[in-house]
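Predict the 3D structure for this chain.
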Amino acid sequence: MNNDHPMREPVGSAVRDHAIHIVKKTSAPLRRDVVDALRKAIVDGRLAPGSRLIERELIEMTGVSRTVIREALRQLESESIIETIPNKGPIVRRLTRAEAVDLYAIRAVLEGLAARSYVAKASDADILALGEALDRTVAAYEAGDPDEILSVKNAFYNTLFAGADSEILSSMIASLHARVWRWRALGLGHPKRTQNRSQESITGLRDLYDALKARDADRAERVARQEVTNAGAEIMRIFAETDTASL
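Done. Predicted structure below.
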């Protein structure tokens, strides 16, 4: 975790020299690209917890309109990544230890249910696609790039949730993932993350895929829940090492 930023520093002085680059994807609205860029800036510490998000400065950093910035901020607030303080405006929200405990416990249950639903509903083509997503995830872990790991691991789980074929379950899980995005990135990029932990993640994902491919619902649910529990334990270690109640 980067501790170089004062916790209540305005965004302008914290990241004045760091433009936030928007990569326009023709398949997605500009607002979504801005949301992704701001979320990444929060994850990597350029927009630190407690920083004020001043519209004018965000416009200068991103090069987009005030309307797009406001839409992006509303989206991030709906994901509980930022919050609006009276007489101060939007700030990067601090994430508490208590929230982490609750969110990871709920994630474990829901992702276990998704694994069970996948076993019941996934087609052979779904299982093939999940295997390909697993291969990309393993390759990213072996390359050691935290950003790429997070991207392809998200793709793996999105493929799983699509195969589970439950719109309500997928929506609930997506909401939780949005709230824990920064923690997941912190865990993957933490300087004390060991090679053993990365190998454990690879083994866990392979075990999950094997259970899903075998259509073993009980095992798939158990492994899916354990994967989330292990990830939550890693976040708790980060809280302990930083000796803080919020990140």
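The chain has ten helices and two strands.
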